[in-house]
């Protein structure tokens, strides 16, 4: 108490001295001295007296306290000069620059941003208290990254014009590693099994990269919640974490973590009921509940159940439906009953749909994919479908949907759709050299979103000694407002295996087709195509393979085909760019129709499925089968055969070389095809949020022939990577065939490259 009285005495004395205790007088004028950066009006605003008023000691003390409280000045004094009040101030210095040296774990910009949030930034008034606080904040940042031995030296150097330069010299030190994690009190589960659930761990093979062996308070909090979830999902309703101890050695290099837990008893579900305002039948609500009587309690299933009921109500416009689960514990029998109380809230309507982020893509391209309409009831299912449809366009790296409430209303929300556009055009440029084919050149231009209209346009050229292809394609996905699409393809293809001594024949094909796509559900579409193809065959006299000579003798050297195609397609992927669930299916029938010289049919089916596993890992399955035959047992034209092998087929084998060979060892293709893949897709380590890079471990199988026989099956395994780089999409694979035949051409390393614009 005596200390505080002493401080008050000194403060009062200082104020009295600063004010030079004078007799009351009428202020004729006020003069401000000593200001450089501060506006005179700022000083006037803190003075309790105006011109014409009487100045007293109380008002002087009040003025000094107010000016000190601004933090702008380190000295303030008041004087009277013949009726003129003279206010003399000495401004605090301003921060001219902030330098940070020695920081490696953090970007300088991020550290400066953190200091700015505290109040230390260039241009601000220098405050020693803020400087000390900034130093402590930097230390805290390094401690959060496991560097407990970090040293930070702070200096403030005076500069001209009442300024200071602030400098932080940082010695980061070594990272403290977790040497031991102990869980005390676990009896039901092995400590080793529990430790596997945690992200924090002791140093291991990959911890140098993942940094999971570095202590972090945030990581520990997340791990404690993971541990709690692990027990609650297995019925231990009374599980609790009693204590958490984190200790560090004196050299600040080793961290020891001890977690004390109480497991409690395992509970089973005795009964589940629903109550509240039932806008849906009670039976329907109970069908959405994942927990049934007799089941071991699981918090995950309970949460899933409440969400399912909320989503069901959300489909009827109740956007803010609330479902709470109230437990009733029977500790003696170790059973728990739940009552799900339903509060649907008001029915909500969509006032307006706002689209943002689309600089190239027209609004209508996005809006026509919306299944939620303005003025309609809020529907969680329709909003989800709208987001998925926009994502599946393939025009955007990211699609976000928000539904903020309309201010001043209780039953209206806006639907805000924000997108991040990605390059949708491709310039494909390629050059290569083969010992047999010589120089191979390829070029192509395609645009999935021409002028932001959502239309597709592509032009491709591929030239080599063997193959020369020219093609033009166009697709208008919304020919009608109902989503009926139309398009066309025009192509010219020359094939000359004789140029490399592997076939001694040439084919020249010219064709065109028109396409129509008819959607009949949200995920299903029927595609129809009608086209014409003219193929001319030229033989090398006395050198052409027998199969070519036989074909020309049977069908002639100039064949025309009126080609019709009908196909069904289904797309349930959650994203066209980075799918993790759902899949695609396609079943098609292609036939040579009356009017042409060739009569045949080809049937195909492809199924691709994505299964989310855990921690950003996705399991991918792909199956593709095909069968073709000519009418009247005439056989399928050889240039319509199936082929397999290559980076987009069975990796590890040269493109289109799997299957039968003729007498020149050239691949002939076949009338039957089976291709399959199984892959584990995962992000690049440490880049889980970067959707531009994806790795995979795969097994490919496939066969081409005239019959489906196991002996013709080829197989390979390997690793692959897809990188949507700034220079274009790059696809790389390294595969090792483990089932092959003698004449197979193996190519263990394969890649494709494209330039985006």
What does the main sheet amount to? 17 strands, antiparallel
Percent range for helical residues? Answer: 10-25%
**Overall form:** elongated
What structural class should be given to the helix and strand makeup?
alpha+beta
The CATH topology of the largest domain is Porin
Would you identify the CATH H-level superfamily of the largest domain?
membrane protein fhac: a member of the omp85/tpsb transporter family
- What would CATH call the architecture of the largest domain? Beta Barrel
Count the helices. How many?
Answer: 13
Q: pLDDT under 50 segments (min length 5)?
A: 1-20, 431-438
Please tell me how large the radius of gyration is: 38 Å
Please report the total strand number as a whole number: 36
Q: Whole-number average pLDDT?
A: 84
Report the top-level CATH class of the largest domain.
Mainly Beta
Cα end-to-end separation: 75 Å
Strand content: 35-45%
- Counted up, domains total 7
Blueprint (SSEs and pairs):
Layout (H helix, E strand, L loop, with lengths): L1 H18 L5 E2 L2 E5 L6 H7 L7 E2 L1 H13 L3 E9 L2 E8 L2 E8 L6 H11 L9 H17 L6 E9 L3 E9 L5 E8 L6 H7 L9 H4 L6 H16 L7 E9 L5 E9 L5 E9 L5 H6 L11 H16 L7 E9 L4 E9 L5 E8 L6 H5 L12 H13 L3 E7 L9 E10 L3 E10 L3 E10 L8 E8 L3 E10 L8 E11 L9 E15 L4 E16 L6 H10 L2 E14 L10 E12 L6 E13 L5 E13 L21 E2 L18 E11 L10 E13 L8 E12 L2 E12 L6 E2 L1 E5 L1 E2 L1
Parallel strand pairs: 2-5, 6-8, 9-11, 12-14, 15-17
Antiparallel strand pairs: 1-3, 4-5, 7-8, 10-11, 13-14, 16-17, 18-19, 18-36, 19-20, 20-21, 21-22, 22-23, 23-24, 24-25, 25-26, 26-27, 27-28, 28-30, 29-34, 30-31, 31-32, 32-33, 33-35
Helix pairs in contact: 1-3, 4-5
């Amino acid at each position: 108490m005596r200390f505080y009285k002493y401080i008050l005495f000194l403060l009062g004395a200082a104020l009295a001295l600063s004010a030079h205790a004078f007799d009351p007088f009428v202020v004729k004028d006020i003069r401000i001295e000593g200001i450089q950066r501060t506006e005179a009006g700022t000083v006037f605003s803190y003075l309790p007296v105006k011109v014409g008023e009487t100045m007293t000691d109380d008002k002087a003390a009040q003025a000094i306290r107010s000016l000190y409280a601004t933090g702008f000045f380190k000295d303030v004094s008041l004087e009277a000069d013949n009726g003129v009040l003279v206010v003399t101030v000495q401004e605090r210095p301003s921060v001219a620059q902030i330098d940070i040296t020695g920081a490696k774990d953090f970007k300088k910009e991020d550290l400066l941003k953190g200091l700015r949030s505290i109040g230390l930034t260039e241009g601000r008034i220098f405050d020693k208290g803020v400087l000390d606080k900034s130093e402590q904040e930097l230390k805290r940042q390094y401690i959060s990254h496991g560097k407990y031995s970090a040293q930070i030296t702070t200096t403030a150097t005076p500069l001209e014009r009442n300024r200071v330069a602030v400098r932080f010299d940082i010695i980061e030190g070594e990272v403290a590693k977790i040497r031991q994690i102990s869980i005390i009190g676990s009896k039901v589960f092995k400590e080793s099994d529990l430790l596997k659930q945690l992200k924090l761990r002791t140093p291991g093979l990959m911890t140098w990269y993942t940094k999971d062996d570095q202590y972090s308070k945030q990581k520990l909090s997340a791990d404690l919640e993971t541990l709690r979830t692990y027990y609650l999902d297995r019925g231990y309703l009374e599980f609790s974490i009693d204590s958490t101890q984190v200790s560090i050695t004196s050299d600040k290099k080793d961290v020891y973590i001890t977690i004390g837990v109480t497991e409690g008893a395992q509970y089973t579900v005795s009964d589940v009921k629903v109550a509240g305002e039932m806008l849906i039948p009670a039976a329907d609500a109970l069908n959405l509940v994942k927990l049934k009587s007799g089941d071991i309690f699981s918090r995950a299933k309970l949460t899933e159940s409440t969400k399912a009921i909320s989503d069901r109500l959300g489909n009827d416009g109740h956007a803010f439906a609330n479902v709470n689960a109230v437990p009733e514990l029977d500790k003696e029998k170790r059973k728990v009953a739940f009552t799900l109380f339903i509060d649907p809230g008001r029915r909500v309507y969509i006032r307006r749909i706002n689209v943002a982020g689309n600089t190239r893509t027209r609004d209508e391209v996005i809006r026509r994919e919306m299944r939620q309409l303005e003025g309609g009831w809020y529907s969680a299912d329709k909003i989800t479908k709208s987001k998925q449809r926009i994502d599946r366009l393939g025009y955007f790296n990211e699609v976000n949907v928000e539904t903020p409430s309309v201010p001043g209303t209780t039953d209206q929300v806006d639907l805000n759709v924000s997108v991040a556009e990605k390059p949708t055009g491709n310039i494909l440029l390629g050059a290569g050299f083969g010992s047999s084919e010589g120089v191979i050149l390829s070029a192509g231009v395609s645009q999935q979103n021409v002028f932001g209209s959502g239309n597709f346009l592509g032009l491709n050229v591929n030239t080599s000694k063997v193959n020369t292809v020219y093609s033009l394609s166009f697709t208008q996905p919304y020919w009608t407002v109902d989503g009926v699409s139309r398009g066309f393809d025009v192509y010219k293809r020359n094939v000359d295996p004789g140029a490399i001594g592997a076939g001694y024949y040439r084919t020249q094909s010219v064709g065109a087709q028109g396409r129509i796509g008819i959607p009949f559900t949200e995920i299903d579409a029927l595609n129809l195509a009608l086209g014409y193809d003219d193929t001319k065959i030229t033989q090398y006299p006395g050198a052409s393979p027998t199969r070519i000579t036989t074909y020309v003798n049977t069908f002639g050297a100039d064949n025309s085909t009126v080609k019709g195609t009908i196909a069904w397609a289904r797309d349930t992927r959650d994203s066209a760019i980075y799918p993790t669930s759902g899949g695609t299916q396609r079943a098609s029938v292609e036939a040579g129709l009356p009017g042409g010289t060739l009569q045949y049919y080809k049937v195909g089916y492809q199924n691709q499925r994505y299964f989310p596993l855990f921690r950003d890992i996705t399991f991918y399955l792909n199956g593709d089968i095909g069968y073709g035959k000519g009418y009247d047992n005439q056989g399928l034209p050889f240039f319509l055969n199936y082929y397999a092998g290559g980076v987009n087929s069975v990796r590890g084998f040269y493109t289109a070389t799997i299957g039968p060979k003729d007498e020149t060892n050239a691949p002939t293709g076949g009338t039957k095809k089976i291709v399959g893949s199984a892959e584990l897709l995962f992000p690049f380590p440490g880049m889980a949020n970067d959707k531009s890079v994806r790795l995979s471990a795969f097994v490919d199988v496939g066969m081409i022939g005239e019959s489906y026989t196991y002996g013709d099956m080829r197989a390979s395994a390997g690793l692959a990577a897809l990188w949507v780089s700034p220079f274009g999409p790059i696809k790389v694979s390294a595969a090792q065939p483990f089932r092959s035949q003698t004449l197979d051409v193996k190519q263990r390393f394969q890649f494709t490259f494209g330039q985006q614009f």
